[in-house]
Amino acid sequence: MFKRQGLLVVLLAFFIIYLPEKSSAEIVDLTGGIKNEYIYEEYVFVTGSPLKFTGKGKDIKVTVKDSGGKRTETYSLKLTGPNNATLTRNFTYVSDISRFETIGQNTTIGEVTKFNEKIKVGGVEVNLVDYQLSKSQVTDSQPASDYTSGNVIMRKIYELKAENGSLAKLTVHGNGQFLGYDNFWGATQTQLMDFEYEYWNGQVGTVTNRTSHTSSKILNYEPNLASLGSFDGGYSVNVEADTITEYTYDLPSGKGSVDGSQVYMPKVQRLIVPKFRDLSTHWAKAHVEKLYSLGILSDKSNFFSPNTPMLRYDFAIAIGKAVDLRVELEETKKATQTKPTLFKDVKRTRLDYGYLVAANKKGIINGNQNGEFTPDRPLMRQQAAAMIVRALGLEGKAPDPGYKTHYLDDDKISDYARDAVYVASELGIMTGSNGNFDPFGKLTRAQSAKIIERFLEYLESDLKQNYRDDILFFEY
In sequence order, which residues have a C-beta less than 8 Å from that of residue 458 and are 6 or more positions away? Predict the structure, then answer.
């Protein structure tokens, strides 16, 4: 059960979530309904008490299409409830999408264009006779994540017909907000809905629904139980997803709450096993092996050389891969062949050049005033912080200009890196030593591996904590 009480949400249905274009998170339809691969369930309150409706397989159909600056979403559900109750619902939502390429954002404004909903409970038929909805959202497409926030206002009018033919009207008013993020390592969508409905006899009831769907890629170490194997163990990626929902109601017939959860069948993928001969007792062994298993770092040699300096080029490529491992080989080759040279001192034929192109396009890396990237120079700590925070798109989280960091060597931090050092420190991705940040200090390959791993943990776990637990489980 969630701890927070007292919002409003209601009866049957009510608002739409538009996910970022990459999103794997999903909240089905408008009701707080939840699903996995096998079953869908939601609660409705047409009788003044919670009724659980469910559907399976082909009974649940959802399609989303983008074309010509419009997004069309269609929902078709056929559900059954207690005592042979039935629910059928068919909605179509259309949104106009406005893209602002220069700042990497888009907005949508949408409405319901088609609707049909019928519920039969006992001897009562409930028909939706009018449905008005206005919703809008903004999506900020950062290099590492798409962040979405939106609001919705709606009104639904139902006509209730009893067995004796008498008619009654139920009017539902609702409003709410939704927010989410989506990146290669995970996605979460959370909605908070308040609804109020007016009965035909003048009585008023309220119901609150809070729903959250999340999916994550989780790294696990798998030991090799055979002592004579060629490797001791390796890593796997588990893709896990679940949805939770809760309805809290205050109706003329009584108060209460109901909740539910659905878990998707996890998917597992084993990763390659690195075999470095100079890491067996090194403190960074686990960090390095994770990144090599994922393909974020790559080296044909059996020696990682953990204590040598990390080069600027290698770090930039690693961050590019960590942001999105779905870059296709064909795209990388095409970029190598057709893109103009970004920097005077980096050849287009260099290994993984396509990732450098992508990192520059997304604002993660920049060259100097001479048009050079100095790819083979050792990476400085403040340069690493700048790349990391640009990849997250969180430079704006630093205080207004004129502030000082808490480091004793604050005056040595370059102006271009000050915001990044502050944010990276606040997020725990990078920390100093003995009260100093040492902005011009050179990072070793081992230290860089630990920083990149922490970057991945932020994308995998910290965002989920912030977008689900901090919202749903904290008292206000």
Answer: 392, 427, 429
3-state helix, strand, coil in the chain (%, to 5): 25, 40, 35
Instruction: Report the C-alpha gap between 180 and 191 in whole angstroms.
Output: 9
Average pLDDT over residues 23-31: 59
Query: What's the token pair of residue 381?
Result: 């700590």
Dist. CA 422–CA 405, nearest whole Å: 6
Of 138, 168, 256, nearest to 207 by C-alpha is: 256
**What does 359-405 look like in DSSP terms, one character per residue?**
HHHTTS----TTS---TTSBPBHHHHHHHHHHHHT-GGGSPSTT---
Lowest mean pLDDT across 20-29, 74-83, 458-467:
20-29
Q: H helices within 240-328, ranges in order?
A: 285-294, 312-323
Give the DSSP letter of residue 58.
G
Q: How far apart are CA 133 and CA 108, in angstroms?
A: 14
The pTM of this model reads 0.83
Helices then strands (H, E): number in the chain?
A: 9, 15
Q: Tell me the percentage of the chain whose pLDDT exceeds 70.
A: 89
163 token code pair: 């067995």
> Each residue of 413-449: pLDDT tens digit?
999 999 999 999 999 999 989 999 999 999 999 999 9
Alpha helices in 161-284 (DSSP H): none
Report the greatest alpha carbon distance in the chain. Answer: 85
End-to-end CA distance of the chain: 16
Give the span between the Cα atoms of 439 and 411, in whole angstroms.
10
Give me Rg for the CA atoms of the chain.
Answer: 26
DSSP secondary structure letters along 61-106: EEEEEEETTEEEEEEEEEEE-GGG-EEEEEEEEEEEEEEEGGGTEE
Q: Is the pLDDT reported for residue 332 higher than 70? A: no
Please give the domain boundaries of the chain with CATH numbers for all domains: 34-268 (2.40.160), 272-461 (no CATH)
Please enumerate in sequence order all residues whose Cβ is within 8 A of that of 351, keeping only pairs 6 or more positions apart, or say none.
none
Q: Note the pLDDT tens digit of each residue in 299-311.
A: 777 888 899 999 9
Quickly list DSSP for 310-338: PBHHHHHHHHHHHH-TT--HHHHHHHHHH
